[in-house]
Write a structure and sequence with these properties.
The complex is a heterodimer of chains A (335) and B (328).
Chain A: E1 2-3, E2 10-11, H1 20-26, H2 28-47, H3 54-79, H4 87-105, H5 107-130, H6 136-155, H7 165-170, E3 174-175, E4 178-179, H8 180-198, H9 200-210, H10 212-217, H11 222-248, H12 259-269, H13 281-300, H14 305-327
Chain B: H1 2-25, E1 36-41, H2 49-63, E2 66-71, H3 78-90, E3 95-98, H4 107-115, E4 119-123, E5 136-139, H5 142-156, E6 161-168, H6 173-186, E7 191-198, H7 203-216, E8 222-225, H8 228-240, E9 248-252, H9 256-263, E10 269-272, H10 275-290, E11 299-301, E12 305-307
Parallel strand pairs in B: 1-2, 1-3, 3-4, 4-5, 5-11, 6-7, 6-8, 8-9, 9-10
Antiparallel strand pairs in B: 10-12
Helix pairs in contact in B: 2-10, 3-4, 5-6, 7-8
Classes of the chains: A mainly alpha (335), B alpha/beta (328).
Chain lengths: 335, 328
């Protein structure tokens, strides 16, 4: 600060005045990715005459819903400084189990069985990681193979058809013009937000990820917290599977193959640290939006799928680089 | 100052990249809905899809249509293909030509298409969805392919024998239909299946699997491939084991590589579909629907052609293969 010629008036130095750049640097983690998403919306709206339309946004929402549910679950695992690579195969197994049970015992039983299956696989992941001390990357990679094989065995390698029509219709129904899958994903977001922000479990998840030793020394049962995190990941993957199974109206033994990579990308884009302990579930929602809008926009522009793979990878690098450039590596706030 | 400079240069760099990406993405072809036709396939690569897409693209060009091709990247990506189909409906194309990875998954989106007045035509598949009728379809019946393959097996092994099966991708209805009808025709006969496995539709994986079968069953008499991706893998494995002619190789679809293996004496019986004709027929039917003309028939079952080394040089292949070097 310096005193101006006008007594009583203090004029800030040039560096401390408000500028867009300094504003962006201060709030990079909160607004960086939303700004990028907005930029994409603008670009695609200009490039395609159908992008900015209600049917297309509904499409984006429905396509994003399963990824969103899986990504919110993945957030729990990554916040504990872990990783869950088995989410894709959990989706496949839950799809088969849910369809098989639904076919014989109805929709509610099928959904319960689906959620229980996701929780069970999450529990096994957690036990392998905490009791047998296997690194999460290896544990969940191995479980991915086991669970995939189980899904294929149970289904005989073919789709399980004959699910009740009402279940398949769920993916196409709307409440107040919002597709049901979007509502389901939003519900998962709300629950995840509340758990992470307002419950003891949520605070302990951040603590374990932030500094496991310190958490242990302060009396937190680290093993149980990690177990809970992987079970949450499994249950959220099960919700994602229910959404996808309704969408394809059948149990599919190879459903969700791309979800492990996409969910990790969405979580990292959303600002969750791969080292654990910090980040925001709201950021993950924007990460999901980034991936879904980019994919939708490129499809509408008839960009070949091989080119899409390159563009999506480049866009991810750009988004993270922008975030790093403005954020300057400062720690973000977690909630 | 330094920090502001670095940040602003980052902004400039990022803006350039973003604008470049944006500019690169610009260039949608403008056109009315009726001029655009969508194509939804599980895959665009391979000896089946390439000639189908050639038939579609060539015929569509003659009739003045822009073709939007959506490729799900594999039979496992059923949900992606469903999403892409929905995207085509949003793009308000006049019609969608579809080969569904699994018809049971397409009921909802085909209903949506019909509600949006978008015609749905099966291209390479007799159906677009299991419970919703397509407006038209051009294909060969997968079950008939299975019957023809069974005929071929009986011709190759008139005194019976053992068979190993490369069943195709897990969950792909075209492969399971063919195999079901193949087995039905051979049930109770003197041809026995000693091994059966599904696998990804990849020639390297098919080759590896066929090698494993030859190791485990060195006296196997015949190997079955669900299509020529698998069949060529089998033929190469048999060639590598120097058992051409001793182990009979039987599969569907006559692509260029399949033809080569037959000329080398390592593929014995191929049930050839005519994917170029299928693609053309699908477009002709689509054109009639879009223009409101009556269809001669709603389902065009394009005939199959059994191919052996004896007739390989005399059959007309223009309906089976795209011109050399053509890619979608």
């Amino acid at each position: 600060m310096r005193v101006s010629d006008n007594p009583g008036r203090v004029v800030p130095e040039l560096d401390e005045r408000f500028t867009p750049v300094s504003f962006l640097r201060r709030h990079s983690r909160e607004i960086g990715l939303p700004l990028i998403v907005l930029l994409m919306v603008v670009v695609f709206s200009i490039s395609s005459d159908v992008f900015l339309s209600a049917p297309n946004f509904r499409n984006i929402g429905v396509s994003a819903a399963a990824l969103a549910a899986v990504s919110f679950g993945q957030t729990f695992a990554i916040l504990t400084a872990g990783l869950d690579l088995s989410v894709g195969s959990i989706v496949a197994l839950v799809s088969i189990v849910g369809a098989l049970v639904m076919r014989s015992h109805g929709i509610p039983a099928g959904i319960l069985a689906a959620l229980a299956t996701g929780a069970a696989v999450g529990l096994v992941n957690g036990i392998v990681i905490t009791r047998f001390k296997v690194f999460p990357f290896i544990a969940t990679l191995a479980m991915m193979s086991v669970v995939s094989g189980l899904a294929l065995s149970l289904s005989g390698g073919v789709a399980v058809t004959g699910v009740p029509t009402a279940f398949g219709d769920l993916a196409y129904q709307r409440i107040l013009e919002i597709p049901v899958p979007v509502i389901m994903a939003a519900a998962v977001l709300v629950v995840a937000f509340l758990v992470l922000r307002y419950t003891r479990l949520g605070r302990r998840i951040f603590a374990v990820g932030g500094n496991e030793e310190a958490a242990r020394l302060s009396g937190i049962e680290v093993g149980r917290i990690k177990l809970a995190a992987y079970m949450m990941s499994g249950i959220c993957a099960a919700v994602g599977s229910i959404i996808l199974t309704a969408r394809v109206a059948s149990g599919q033994p190879s459903l969700g193959a791309t979800l492990p990579l996409e969910s990790v990308a969405a979580v990292v884009l959303g600002g969750i640290s791969l080292f654990g302990g910090r980040g925001s579930i709201i950021g993950v929602a924007f990460g999901v939006l980034f991936i879904s809008i980019l994919s939708n926009g490129l499809n509408l522009l008839n960009v070949p799928s091989y080119t899409q793979m390159m563009l999506i990878g480049a866009a991810l690098i750009l988004a993270v680089a922008l975030d790093q450039g403005f954020g300057g590596g400062r720690a973000g706030r977690g909630h | 100052m330094k920090n502001a400079y670095r940040a602003s240069s980052n902004i400039r760099f990022a803006s350039v990249i973003a604008i470049s990406i944006g500019m690169g993405l610009l260039g949608t072809t403008a056109g009315s809905a009726a001029d655009k036709v969508g194509v939804s396939m599980p895959n665009v690569k391979g000896p089946w899809f390439t000639p189908v897409l050639y038939g579609i693209s060539d015929e569509a060009k003659k009739l003045g249509y822009d073709v939007i091709i959506q490729d799900a990247g594999g039979y496992a990506n059923v949900d992606k293909q469903v999403s892409q189909f929905s995207n085509l409906v949003v793009q308000k194309v006049g019609a969608i030509l579809v080969d569904p990875a699994n018809p049971a998954s397409f009921n909802g989106v085909v209903r949506e298409a019909k509600a949006s007045k978008v015609f749905v035509v099966g291209a390479g598949s007799p159906i677009a969805a299991s419970d919703v009728e397509a407006d038209a379809a051009a294909s060969s019946s997968h079950c008939n392919i299975g019957h023809e393959l069974a005929k071929g097996a009986k011709i190759l092994l008139p005194n019976g024998g053992t068979m190993a099966i490369l069943a195709g991708p897990a969950g792909a209805f075209w492969a399971s239909d063919r195999l079901r009808c193949f087995k039905e025709d051979l049930a109770g006969g003197n041809l026995k299946i000693v091994a059966e496995q599904t696998s990804e539709q990849d020639p390297a994986i098919a080759l590896s699997l066929a090698n494993d079968f030859l190791q485990r069953f060195p006296t196997v008499d015949l190997m079955y491939g669900a299509d020529d991706t698998y069949g060529v893998g089998v033929a190469r494995a048999v060639q590598g084991a120097q058992k051409c002619g001793k182990v009979k190789v039987l599969f569907a679809v006559l692509g260029e590589a399949a033809e080569e293996m037959m000329r080398a004496g390592c593929a014995d019986y191929v049930v050839a579909q005519q994917p170029v004709k299928i693609g053309r027929s699908a477009v002709v039917m689509m054109d009639a629907l879009v223009k409101g003309k009556p269809l001669e028939k709603k389902k065009d079952e394009v005939p199959l052609v059994p191919v052996t080394p004896a007739n390989l040089n005399s059959i007309d292949k223009t309906g089976m293969q795209a011109p050399k070097g053509w890619t979608p």
